[in-house]
Amino acid sequence: MDTAMILEYGWVLLVLIGLEGILAADNAVVMAVMVKHLPDEQQKKALFYGLIGAFVFRFAALFLISFLAEVWQVQALGAAYLLYICISHMWKHAKGKDDDHKVKEGKGSSFWMTVLKVEIADIAFAIDSMLAAVALAITLPATGWGTIGGLDTGQFAVMFIGGLVGLICIRFAATQFVKLLKKYPSLETAAFLIVGWVGVKLVVYTLAHPELGVIPEHFPHSTVWKLTFWAVMIGIIIWGWLVSVRSAKKKEA
What we know:
Helix content is 77%, strand content 2%. The chain has seven helices and two strands, in the order ααααββααα. Helix 1 (3-35) crosses helix 6, helix 3 crosses helix 4 (111-137) and helix 6 runs antiparallel to helix 7. It has a two-stranded antiparallel sheet with strand order 1-2. The radius of gyration is 19 Å and the shape is globular. Strand 1 (147-148) and strand 2 form a beta hairpin. It starts with a helix and ends with a helix.
């Protein structure tokens, strides 16, 4: 693996970890609201079962989706999904809407009914998380280390690490991540812009798929496209950081 490929894998992994952190924060908030009506001891047990479910469902989704990753329809779906969550966030941000998930507490729910609801939510978040992960990973160049399912081993490893970090975020870092985003809200906007830009990259990959051939197959791997992609990516990161720092200083003033 050459230096350029290492950098590309590193950047995508960082983007995926950031996205998984955002999704994990949402997941943690939903789980907390769902178990809120239970006694303290049962809350801990329900959350523990929820974490087990999150682990099982996320990696089940990972292995299932990995077998379909090279199907251009799945690539198109992944691109559409990334663009959707980017545009959806920007739209809600522009409208000033609260993007928090609102879940009924269900005060009459028994312990096991609450656990069932948490597990159903885990399934939805698992699909959400792994679809985002595969959409990011399949834009990476193949390492040539073999395949797992329909994915190159390196691509699969990025998805696996991202999913694992997401679970760690749910368990330990979700609250801190929410605090960071509250302090530097523009970082979230920059993160979603990056997600949208990766969605554009996946659109390019989809259009270059041999079964479609809308654009030349070699274009996604060309120097011109790679330089363009990373120039925009770095520009978004710099913009997000500068705006976040400036906004924080204004609040402190």
